[in-house]
């Protein structure tokens, strides 16, 4: 499979995943309200669960071609939530016995991502 085809699979899968994420966010806001980020909460949990199902299937059955992996895991799940990739990376570190690295990865990703968001907000507030 060519490089261009790989990018197109990720592109179309990502679009589908992003549409699904938006649908869930809007539906949750309308049905449950916005006092808690229910949509994102549900998306992160379901995305990580589906990533686990696909990764587990591929690890034990290994019957998916690279195009399907790109379309499903990188594309759809990447567009749906990157939390699924984060969860898979943390689980792989843990399963390799790299407990310290897994903990550092989880804590560092969460703390530095939130810090980065606050830094971005502060920069925009300062500039405007």
TrEMBL record:
Record key words, sorted: Cell inner membrane, Cell membrane, Ion channel, Ion transport, Membrane, Metal-binding, Sodium, Transmembrane, Transmembrane helix, Transport
Superkingdom per UniProt: Bacteria
Catalysed reactions, as listed in the record: fluoride(in) = fluoride(out)
Main location: membrane
Annotated membrane topology: Multi-pass membrane protein
Cellular-component GO terms for this entry: plasma membrane
Activation/inhibition comment: Na(+) is not transported, but it plays an essential structural role and its presence is essential for fluoride channel function.
Residue ranges crossing the lipid bilayer per the database entry: 7-24, 36-58, 70-94, 100-124
Subcellular location(s) per record: Cell membrane
GO molecular function: fluoride channel activity; metal ion binding
Residue sites binding Na(+) per the record: 78, 81
Gene Ontology biological process terms from the UniProt entry: cellular detoxification of fluoride
Alphabetized Pfam families for the sequence: CRCB (PF02537)
Function description: Fluoride-specific ion channel. Important for reducing fluoride concentration in the cell, thus reducing its toxicity.
Database matches in NCBIfam families: crcB, PRK14195.1, PRK14198.1, PRK14209.1
HAMAP family: FluC (MF_00454)
Similarity field: Belongs to the fluoride channel Fluc/FEX (TC 1.A.43) family.
Protein name (database record): Fluoride-specific ion channel FluC
Naturally occurring in which organism (per UniProt): Bradyrhizobium macuxiense
């Amino acid at each position: 499979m060519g490089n261009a085809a790989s990018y197109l699979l990720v592109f179309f899968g990502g679009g589908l995943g992003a549409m699904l994420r938006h649908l869930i966010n809007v539906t949750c806001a309308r049905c449950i309200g916005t006092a808690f980020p229910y949509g994102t909460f549900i998306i992160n949990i379901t995305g990580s669960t589906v990533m686990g199902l696909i990764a587990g299937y591929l690890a034990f059955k290994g019957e998916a071609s690279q195009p399907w992996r790109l379309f499903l895991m990188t594309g759809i799940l990447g567009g749906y939530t990157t939390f699924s990739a984060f969860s898979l990376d943390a689980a792989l570190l843990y399963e390799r016995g790299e407990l310290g690295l897994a903990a550092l990865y989880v804590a560092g990703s969460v703390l530095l991502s939130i810090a980065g968001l606050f830094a971005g907000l502060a920069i925009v507030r300062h500039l405007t």
